[in-house]
Every structure is written in C-alpha cells, then in structure tokens.
Specification:
The protein has 14 helices and 18 strands. The protein has 383 residues and is α/β, with parallel strands linked by helices.
Length: 383
C-alpha cells in the first residue's frame, strides 16, 4: 500500500489528482485542506469539489500552518503532493501576511514536521506545485542583444496604452520565446515570491532530510471544477459568470496579453507520474501546453460557446504585477515524463463551459476584488 498525502487536495487541481490516484487500489490517500470559503463557499460540504473526493480519501479539515494537524497528516505518509497555497497574483499584493503565512510558513511547517519525526519519518518524496509566475515576465529575444529577461513593464508606458516589452539595453521591442526552466526568476508579485520561496526551501531542506523532490511550475491551469467563487484564480471563471448574464466584459490592457493554458487533467497525469519516475527527482519541470493564447481569443471562444450577447470591451485598464505573456518550454517534461498536453484548448474550454452552466454562479466577488485592487492602488486606468 502506498500512502499519499495531498495538501490542498480539495482544491481545483487537488481534486483531479485525488480522483486519478483513487483509480489505483494500491493508493491510500489522505487530504489536508482548510476549505477556504473563497473557493468552497460558506458550507464546504455542499461544494462541488469536496463532493467529488469525499468518498475517495481520508479527509482532514485543517490548516497547513497548524503543527499538530500537519504532524498527524505527515506521520503515516510515504509521498506528499504539496498543493496547499493561497493563489492569485492580484490579491497577494495587498494580502501580504496571508500569502506569506500560508505559502511560506505552511511549507516551513511541513518541513519542520518531517525534521521532527527524524528516523520515524517515512516520507520518500515531496512533489511541489509551483508556478510559472516565478519567472516574472519570462524569456524574450532582442534583435540586438539576444536572449534577455526583462523586468516588470514600465507603469508610464502602460498608462499610455503601450503594453509591450522593450530591451533595457538598446530599447528595441522584444519578442517572446518559450521560457525554459533555467531562465532567470524575477517574481513580479508577492504570490510569485512565495512560490519561489517554497521551491528554494525544498531545494535546501529535502537533500538535508534525505527526501527526494520534484518541483512543477504550472502554467495557467483550467478545466472542469475551477472555482467560480474565487475571482483571483483566472479569467475563465470571471468571464463565464458575466457572459452567462450577458453583461459587458472588461478586457484589461490591449487584449493581446497571452497565457499558456493547460487542462487540469493533463496536470494531474504528470504530477502522479512523477511519483514513479526517479529521473524527475531533484528536478524543476514546466507544465504547460507550449502554446500561448491571447485573452481576447479566450473571450471570443467563451462567448461563442455560451451564445452570449455580452459586449467585449478592451479597456486599457491594467493591474500592477500582471505579466504581458507566457509560453512554456515543455521539452524537459517530455523527456523526463513522456509528457504531452492531450486536451486541446477549444475542447477543454467547451467541456468547462458545459459544466459551468449547471453550477451556481456569483460575480459579487469579482466586483469586490476590483474595488480592493483600486483601493490598494494596484488597478490602474490607461489615459
């Protein structure tokens, strides 16, 4: 019997991993999750995500920062998939203590428990869900200077509706190239900083504790089960809620900003496979599709799928901490794990849209998030 602890296992990605793990009768699964109302609503026992896994695991409702709770969860684990984290770049910029406590101190608490268990610890490996956000703007190419890793975009240019990236040395406009795992990390949000901190803790402590690890840098994960209550975890939920009510949709920047979208089922497959592939030990691996899709393209696909009459407005508004583009180099995932993103984007989005139409929706969180960001000076309006 293989005993697997999944922290944050009742979340969007966690539930998909738990469902797939439960297909193997040799897996004994424990889930530790705080059941945040921002994701599960006020009664977590009624939430879609919880009900997809409640009969597939031993469930512990608790905080990763609670030492006793973590101790009881870890002491009988052979493998740990550490997903528990506060997510969302925008919210992290004003809920600083909350993100540091959960993401950094929660991971610290996990490692402290393992250290305290000493020879009694049976953990063989930790798999960490990190984020492509650690790269900041990522990897670009300058026609004069070659490969560069630009810093965050200039606020003045963005206020003037110029959302491109330029070479700091010669001033030329930059071209996006796939971001490799050895790229320079330049977090541009506190969320990204906390994820990089998690990575560095594992890289430092796991070898000292005699435990293997694999770190995955997820791109933009989407799919059935994505929270419709949390406005900080992606545009798909926000756009969907507005479009199903035929309300106007505000596209930030110039609509050309792009992301590498990967379906949650593909992510779950790769994470689970890494438990049995020793070549993944000690590695940092990108998980994405290797293709970037613009926000306006996503909006058009959703509008068509919902048959919505929503007006799509490209406003020029922007959030500090957001990046222009991202596209992962996934050669390492292919070489080590035989990874392929099997779910085509349009197919995955159509499945997502069908599921959304049967779920309860509430856009009040989105309106609240905009007000919070404006108050904190993080949501700006182009001139």
């Amino acid at each position: 019997m293989r005993r697997i602890l999944v922290t944050g296992g009742a979340g969007f990605i966690g539930t998909e991993i738990v469902k797939k793990l439960s297909n193997n009768k040799n897996n004994q699964i424990t889930v530790l999750d705080i059941m945040s109302p921002q994701i599960h609503g006020n009664d977590y026992e009624q939430s879609y995500l919880y009900n997809t896994i409640k009969d597939k695991c031993h469930f512990i409702k608790g905080d990763v920062c609670d030492y006793e709770v973590m101790y009881s969860a870890v002491k009988n684990a052979d493998y740990i998939i550490h997903l528990a984290a506060e997510t969302g770049t925008g919210q992290s910029m004003y809920q600083i203590n909350n993100y540091n406590n959960t993401n950094i101190m929660g991971t610290s608490n996990l490692l402290q428990v393992i250290s305290s268990l000493g020879k009694e610890c049976e953990v063989k490996k930790i798999v960490l869900s990190s984020s492509r956000s650690v790269y900041g703007e990522g990897k670009y190419e300058c026609p004069n200077c070659g490969v560069v890793y630009p810093k965050a975009r200039d606020r003045g240019r963005m206020l003037a509706k110029d959302f491109a990236l330029y070479c700091a040395t010669c001033g030329e406009r930059l071209k996006l190239v796939p971001t490799t795992e050895d790229s320079v990390c330049r977090p541009s949000s506190l969320y990204a900083f906390t994820k990089l901190s998690q990575e560095m803790m594992l890289q430092t402590m796991c070898p000292a504790l005699g435990i293997d690890y694999t770190i995955f840098r997820f791109q933009n994960v989407y799919g059935v089960g994505q929270s419709l209550k949390n406005p900080y975890t992606g545009i798909l939920s926000v756009f969907s809620t507005l479009m199903l009510e035929n309300k106007p949709v505000n596209i930030f920047e110039d609509g050309k900003e792009s992301r590498d979208f990967i379906n949650v089922m593909d992510v779950a497959d790769a994470v689970i496979k890494s438990l049995d592939v020793p070549e993944s030990n000690g590695e940092i691996i990108n998980l994405g599709s290797g293709v970037n899709t613009s926000v306006i393209e996503i909006a058009e696909i959703l509008k068509k799928s919902y048959e919505s009459t929503s007006e799509i407005n490209i406003s020029g508004d922007f959030r500090l901490g957001d990046i222009a583009h991202n596209k992962a180099d996934i050669e390492k995932a292919k070489n080590i794990l035989g990874f392929t993103a099997n779910v085509p984007l349009e197919e995955g989005l159509n499945d997502f849209c069908k599921w959304v139409q049967g779920e309860q929706r509430d856009n009040s969180g989105y309106e609240k998030s905009l007000k919070e960001m404006e108050k904190a000076g993080l949501l700006l309006h182009a001139k």
